[in-house]
Amino acid sequence: MRFDPDHWLEIGKIVAPQGLRGELRVYPSTDFPQRFLDPGERWLLKNGSSTIEAIQLTNGRHLEGKGIYVITIEGVTNRDQAEQLRNARLWVPESDRPPLEEGEFHVADLIGLSVYHHTTGDYIGEVINILPAGHDILEVRLPIIMPPPQEQEPNLHPKQNEPNASEPQRDNPSNSRKSSRKSKSKSKSKPKKPPTILIPFVYDIAPVVDLKRQRIEVLPPPGLIEL
Question: What pTM does this model have?
Answer without folding.
Answer: 0.58
